[in-house]
Amino acid sequence: MRVKAYILFILMSCVILGGCKRGIDSELQTTGQSENKRVYQNLVVGFSQLGAESKWRDGNTASIKKTAESLGLELIFSDAQQKQENQIKAIRTFIAQQVDVIGVSPIVETGWESVFQEAKDAGIPIILVDRRADVPEELYATYIGSDFTEEGRKAARVMAELLGGKGNIVELVGTINSAPANDRYIGFREILQDYPEMKIIASESADFTRAKGEEVMRGFLEQYGDQIDALYAHNDDSALGAIRAIEDYGLQPGQDIIIVSVDAIRDAFQAMIDGKLNATVECNPLLGPLFFETALKVVNGEYVPKWIPSQESIFFPENAAEILPTRKY
Ligand code: GYE
């Protein structure tokens, strides 16, 4: 009898002790103390920005810098001034500095494979921010950014509506071989297939800048004059440059020439209030908070999806004045 009680006592002790240990283990896991989980305060992030070509980009850079500061992490920021070679150099420097994670907004889609491989070999994850790169999926942790093809489709649907399905369109393309230029080009044409009377009569790169937008639009006007019914600009800045050219030419932007662009920067809202722009498709540059949250997850080995898309809408002149004060870029 006594032996049985003794055995029962031993068995119950094992159950209770085992349970306690499991409890402690799972608590350690949730509080993250079982391994050396990283926190923002000891995170070092390298970020290769492509340049400062537009107000969109200024908003993007500000979001990244401000968020880093408020989270108290170390950000090594590099501005490539529109040159891929500068971005590649910056990434190599980040590798040499042994940062924890590298964020990059690739100016163009191609030419990244070897430097991304170098980062991978050094055990440093790459996060694509804003623009995609054309590389195998195992060379980057995730892509945080917009569906540029859908933005192109949205612009075309709006344009079809504004033109009543008929008209001559000129196009200001973004930076050649960049993901947003490639996809906004494709998405727009995809929808136009359903509108045989809407024709793109000229298409040229304005490099996402106001200066180029103005210059290229002047050329379009010289060549086609009032045959132009509409302008599709891959970003607001190039549309705003084109608006200057249209006014100088003696036509009324937004009336004589219907204009649809992409980004939804504050200046585009002002242009809509002034009646010079007919619609802007939103593209969100405020990616700082999501980028660092994702960076920390990646460094801690947590799951992240291969693409974290932005949620975006379309804006029109009707309520531009009401919305402008709420816009942050
Ligand atoms: O639309 C444009 C900027 O990559 C989505 O780059 C971004 C684009 C944006 O210069 O204004």
Summarize the structure.
The protein is an alpha/beta fold and 329 residues long. It has eleven helices and twelve strands.
Give a verbal description of the structure.
This protein folds into 3 domains: 34 residues, no CATH class; 134 residues, 3-Layer(aba) Sandwich (Rossmann fold), CATH 3.40.50.2300; 136 residues, Rossmann fold, CATH 3.40.50.2300. Helices cover 46% and strands 18% of the residues. It is built from 11 helices and 12 strands. A 6-stranded parallel sheet has the order 2-1-3-4-5-11, with helices on both faces. A 6-stranded mixed sheet has the order 7-6-8-9-10-12, sandwiched between helices. 45% of the residues are buried. It binds beta-D-fucofuranose (GYE). Beta-D-fucofuranose binds next to helix 2 and strand 9.
